[in-house]
Each structure stands twice: as structure tokens, then as C-alpha cells.
Amino acid sequence: MRLTTTGIYMSDAFINNTVSEKEIKNPETSERKKYGTFAGVFVPTLLTILGVILFLRQGWVIGNAGLLGGIGIIFIAFIIVTFTALSMSCITTNIRIRAGGAYSIISQSLGLEVGGSVGIPLYLAQTFAITLYIFGFREGWLYIFPDHPAILVDLTVFGVLFLVAFVSASLAFRVQYLILAVIIAAVLSVAGSIFTGVMEHEVFWMGEFPGAPEDGFPGVSFWVVFAVFFPAATGIMAGANMSGELSNPRRSIPLGTISAIVISFFIYMASAYWLSRVATPEELLTNYNIMIDKALWGPAVLAGLLGATFSSALASIVGGPRILQALGDHKIFPGGGFFSKLSKNGEPRNAILITGCIVLATLMLRDLNTIAPLITMFFLITYMMINLVVFIEQRMDMISFRPTFPIPKFVPAIGTIGCLFTMIIINPWLGLVAIGVVLAVYLYLTNRKLNVPYGDMRSGLFVSLAEWAAKRVSLLPENNERAWKANLLVPVRSARELRGSFSLIRSLVFPRGSVKLVGIASDSNKETLRESLINLSSAFLKENIYTRWSVIESDNYTDSVLNSLQTLQGTFFKPNILFLRLPSEKRFDPEIHNILNKARANRMGVQLYVEDSVANLGRSASINVWLREKSPHWDISMDLGNVDLALLSAHKLQLNWKADLRVITVVDEKEIENAYNYLENLLSVARLKDATPHVEAGAFKDALKNAPQADVDFFGLPDDPDLDELRSFVEITKSACVFVADSGSENILA
After folding, report:
1. Separation of alpha carbons 151 and 367, rounded Å
2. pLDDT tens-digit profile of 692-740?
3. pLDDT, position 454
């Protein structure tokens, strides 16, 4: 079904329609006139809702749905926007709303990226809506003066609108008082007709939904008629966008918005009953001007129609540039500084100019019916995000969420679902397109790494999710072999210790693992070490590795490591692997022995990294894992011995390095075939399909020399290792070596 632009899409644009809050950094703006509830919130909201659909399309709605169906449509539409208005009132009484209206609300809650991803499409929708309203005004004008050139009417109306907006928002408000008087006269003219005997027909309660005359009455559904009516109930953001110009926004926004919605609701309900009594269903379906024809004085209703379209266009041309100004002020797009500039009286003149140019260009297209539904989708996404912000804030139970206008928790939930439902009902494909545009802008803004000028609730949101997850995890079995990932505890004496192992650590945990850096510092070097850990943590974070750091002041390295190891076992992201670097100096061997024994006693996995000047970890093309031979039975069971962590670590490196992985064992000559069968079965059961089995025969030290060389070799860590012997492995293999001990919670077969 195709109705005119005026009929379906004329009532949803008074969003962001007025002067928004000025930034504190502009002292000139603080001297501007402040508005009260009536002028600043009630009037613009009421003018938005009592628009074109009331005068031209409500009769068609009743003709299709009947009185009961029409009441149902009105009720559902107003429930959705009322709940959205309640959410908007709630959030605006909890924050200091800045310029940009809905953009400001969303960005202060979910960040500039989310706010900008909604704000940019919202600005374009607001700007295109100006053109739609001008076209709607022209249709009403040509009803009176059919001989006037359409393009001349459009350009004249645009010129008046642009001049009023360019002069000042105060002039726009004064014009709206006149429009309010015109619309009141139109409503009174309709109400006065009841004394003329025009209500002569019996109420028809249920309609047959025949459709629209221009389509030959093909038949429609309840929800198609609802989609035509719904834009009439939108435009509830007027008060929120006026917050910077209100004397008391926390009082005015809820009171003015809800009052306007309630009065509008009763007017729509009363006019629905009036329409069902003054005409037959056939008249309502075929005569879009039925309200003009049946009113006490038709010209008053016609003037109301013209006033409704003009006021909506005026609201958009005043509010749209203020969204652009706010977007530019936060550098949402390149060159935004030009649009953020304000004139001496606080008007965003540059933003008004670019908005005027866009409107003028779209006027030349002569028909925006194709994108009109998309404009409605952007408004609905904005309303949905407002509800979603409140829904999230309520459930986070953050102490900062203390609105002076609290609402029940079911309100934003129903508002969110209602807006999404309406998008699906109106046009699901265009809804997906609109969501796709918003997501594309979000991805673009995420890559721009915007400088956030104020705090938002994202960190609190993620903390709340983490707390919820921690509570859920605490109810599950502690050891989940299938969910295992590497969480490294890395003791650090000096940042230089990690320079050679940074790449290895990163590859051992990427992408889902974590790193906990624990600096052990004396009083003399604690500041230097702190700076080094901050830099190291930042480097890991740039590699998308979850990293945290802390510094312990102590001269006892062993006690500090052990205390950290034991203390961190009570944390949510507790480390499960102790990553130690074996120093070349033998004087540290006793403390390394002590730490290894305590780590095993605390069921911590161990990765002891050995590197010297002969074999620095530079290349990352091949990996060897050395397994003990399993003769004489060569059985594979769920308990493979001390090989699980070594195989898991090697597999992680293989994935991140795209390297070759060899699994090697050393046996007697007679066991070579059995060893190959065992390794092939092991790799198959462990699902290491890209690994290669390799068997060496003879003495272990000879095998180290003869085996294919790798960039890193993994070995099992003995219970009481000879650390000096471990150092010799580096010299023999000419590679970096990692000696690994399982904690018992890993399983390569899981």
C-alpha cells in the first residue's frame, strides 16, 4: 500500500527540535533566556503529536479498523511512546544532558561511539524530515490554491523556515505560539460541530480493513493500519532537547512531556469517536479531508493542517543543526570543528547552513517516498536506545543511578520491545537496513578512537556483567577442562626480563587468556618498575591481551612470588600458570627451586622459560614438543602424564604463529614402530591434525642434537630438576626452551 508522504510520515520529527543545553565552556550561552515547562516542553511536544495524521489520516484509520480497532491502534501506539517518554524523563533527571538531545543521552550512557552511531543517522533523518514536512505543507496549500506552482511553494516555505531558524530559536518559539493557537482553533472547530447535528451515524465498532482508495482497496491488516498511524504518536524528545534552555529541566521534562502525551491521547480518542459518528466507513476511507468537511468551520481545520506541517518542519530545522553541532563538538567526523562553532548569540549558524543546503538539495528530488520509511526507522532506533539505556542502568544497580523521576523496571523493557516490534511491523527489511547503517557507523567510529570528554556507564556495565558471570561460575564445578585457557602469572624484577619473552607470552595466551604482571621491587626501584609495568601492560593491551599489573615492595623475591601465587587463587580470573624465566646466574637456583615446588603444591601449572645469547626467540616458524616414551604398553588414557600443558601451549603457539608443530619421542630401535603408532593415535585423539609425529632412536642427548631444529622446544619439567642441565638444553638444541609442569586441570584430550 502506498499512501502519500504526508499521510504516513508527517508526525515523527519533532525530536531534537529545539535549543539544547550549551556547553559550560561557552559562558555566553549561560545568559540566554530560560524557558519553563509550558513554553519549553509542553507546547513543542503537543504541536508535534497533534499533527497531520490527526487531520488527514485518522478518518482513514477508523474507516479501516472501526471504532474498537481504532481505539486499539491508538492505545498500542501511545503505550509505546508513553513508556519511551517515561524512560526519557527518567534518564534526563539522572544526568546533566548536553547539546544534542537523544545523542547526548545515549553517548553519556553508552559512549561516543554508540551515541554517534545513532546521532549521525538521526541528524540525517531529522534533516530529510524537513523536506517531507515542506511537501506536506505544499499539499495542504495546493488544496486551497491549486494553480500555484508546487516548486515555488516549496522554496517559499523553505526560505521562511530557514530565515526563522537562522535568526534565532527564540523567534521559532514565538512562531509556535501562533501555530498553537491555530491548532487549538482547529480542534475547537471539530468539537463545535457536535452542536450542529453532524453526528448522525451509528457507531460501527469493527472494520473490515479494505485498504486505501489509491490502491483499489486491496485489503490490509490491522498492523498495516497501525504502521500508518504510529508516527502520529512520536516526537516526544522535544523536552529532552530543551534541557539546556529550561529553568528546571528535572521538573519540566517529565511534567511537560507526560502532560502533552496525556492531552494528545484524549484528543485522539475523542476524535476517533467523533469520526465514527459523523461519516460512514466508505466516506472515511475515500475522503481524506473528512475532518475539514465535517467541522464547524472547515478553514480552521485546514489552517490547523498547515500549521501542523509548518511547526514540525520548523522544529526539525531548529533541532537538526543542534544535533550536527553536538556531533561536530565531539569530533565524531573529520572536520567537525567547523560545525561546532556557535555565533555570538549561541546559534549553530554553520550547522544551520549545511542543513539548509541538504534540505535544498532534497527539495529538488521532488519525492522522498522511497526513503521516508527509513527516516521513521532511525527515529524508532533512537527511541529504542533511550529505553535500552534506562533498562541497562536500572539493572546495574549503580549508586550513580539516582533519577529524580524513577520508573518501574518493566517500563523501559516494554518500551524497547515495543519500538523493535514497531520497526518489524512497519517494514522489517528497512528496519534491518537502518540497523545496518547504525552498525556501520559504530564500526567506523570505533576505529577513530574518539576522545571521550565525559564518563559513561560502559565500564560499570562490563563490571556488572563480570560480577554476574563470576557468581554463575561459582555455582559450577571449579575445574572445567573444556573451558581451560591460559592465565599467566608473571613475576617481574625488571622490565628487561620480558623483552625476550614478550612475543612468547603474548602468543601463549592470545586471544582469550590473560596476563597478571607482578613486579617485585625494592624501595629504590619501585617507581621505575611501576613505569615499566604500565608500559608493558599497555603493550599487551594493544595486542588485545587482558592484562593487569601490581607492584609488591619487598627484598625477598621468593616470598613475594609465593604470596602473590596464593593470594590470587581467590580471584575470579585467577592465574593457572606460573611463567618463570630461568636466569643465567646460578645464584638464583635455590629460590627458583623453592618457587617451583610451592607452585606445584598449590596446583599451579608451570612454564619455565630458558633463553640465552646462543638461542634468542626470534623466529616463529616451528615448534617441537618432547614426550617421554610409553613402552612397553603404549596406552592412551585420559591421564597422559605431564604432557597436557606442553601440548596445549605448543598448539596455541602453532595457531598464533601459523607454525609447524612436531611431537617427538625418543625410544630404542625396536620400539620405533610402536612409538609412531602411539604418536599418531595421540594426535588423532587430541585433534592435533596439523601436527607431525617424529621418533628418534638412541640416547636422549643425541636425539636433542639430531632431531629437526625448532624455534622453541617444549619439555616436561621433572619433579626435582637440575636447573643447570636445563640450561644446557638450550645450547644443544640451539633454540629457546620451555619446561612445563601440569597443574592437573589441563587435558589435551578434553
Report:
1. 12
2. 999 999 899 899 999 999 999 999 999 889 999 999 999 898 889 999 9
3. 60
CA distance 580 to 596: 9
Longest dimension (CA), the chain: 114
pLDDT of residue 29: 40
CB 89 within 8 A of CB 258: yes
Q: Measured between alpha carbons, how far is 51 from 306 in angstroms, rounded to an integer?
A: 9
Residue written as grid cell 618498575: 529
548-565 tens-digit pLDDT: 899 898 888 888 888 888
Candidates 93, 111, 38; CA nearest to 454 is: 111
Sequence-distant (6+) residues with CB within 8 A of 737 are 609, 610, 611, 615, 712, 713, 714, 715, 726, 729, 730
pLDDT (tens digit per residue) in 138-184: 888 988 888 999 999 999 999 999 999 888 777 887 888 899 999 99
Neighbouring C-alpha atoms within 13 Å toward the C-beta of 344:
0
C-alpha of 502 from chain center: 33
Walk me through the domains of the chain, giving residue ranges and CATH numbers.
5-448 (1.20.1740.10), 479-610 (3.40.50.620), 611-750 (3.40.50.620)
- Measured between alpha carbons, how far is 9 from 129 in angstroms, rounded to an integer? 8
Of 122, 123, 131, 151, nearest to 361 (Cα)? 131
> ∠ CA(43), CA(323), CA(249), 5° rounding?
45
b/e per residue, 147-176, with b = 16+ CB within 10 A?
eeeeeebbebbbeebbebbbebbeebbebb
Long-range contacts of 539-545 (CB under 8 A, 24+ apart): 539/502, 540/505, 540/506, 540/515, 543/506, 543/510, 544/510, 544/511, 545/506, 545/509, 545/510, 545/513, 545/514, 545/515
- Which of 217-221, 347-351, 477-481, 484-488 is predicted least confidently? 477-481
What are the start-end ranges of the H helices in 330-452?
336-340, 349-363, 372-396, 410-426, 428-448
CA angle 636, 637, 643 (to 5 degrees): 80
User: With 70 as the cut, is the pLDDT of residue 276 above it?
Assistant: yes
pTM: 0.70
Contacts 24+ apart (CB under 8 A), 158-164: 158/134, 158/356, 158/359, 158/360, 158/363, 161/130, 161/134, 161/310, 161/313, 161/314, 161/317, 162/317, 162/352, 162/356, 162/359, 164/314, 164/317
For residue 295, how many C-alpha atoms fall within 13 Å in the half-sphere facing its CB? 23
Q: Contact 583/550 with Cβ under 8 angstroms?
A: no
Alpha-carbon gap, residue 347 to 345, rounded angstroms: 6
C-alpha grid cell, residue 150: 508546487
Measured at the alpha carbon of residue 351, what is the angle toward residues 136 and 91, in degrees to the nearest 5?
80
Closest CA to 580 of 513, 641, 493: 493
Residue listed under C-alpha cell 509550558: 38
Return the pLDDT at 144. Answer: 86
The two beta strands, 712-716 and 487-492, are unpaired
Digit-coded pLDDT (tens) for 411-432 = 999 999 999 999 998 888 888 9
The residue with cell 631444529 is 709
